[in-house]
Fold:
Amino acid sequence: MDGIRGVELTPGPQATSDSDIEAFIRAKCGTSYHSAGTCRMGADDAAVVDTDARVKAVSGMRIVDGSIMPHVVTGNLNAPIMMMAEKTADRIKGRSLAPADAGYYRSPA
Structure:
């Protein structure tokens, strides 16, 4: 390979240790994806928000975005987040729809 490859472009020859590579990754890498699951919803002690999206440690505050998803969905986050916002708004207003028994797809683990 030495005869056909060029000089290393990134992180570059100056990155020689694990800490150099870690510093490069922290400075240059990001994501174009929406984060989800960082403040997950749940009824257990490890959850950040309760099942009504109320932040457990801050009174009077709710979070309704992708961060409260307990599990990341396998598709675009837009529709599920809109649904969570609508359901949370209904809960705040004291409205609720009757439960539905419609089927759904669960991907194999």
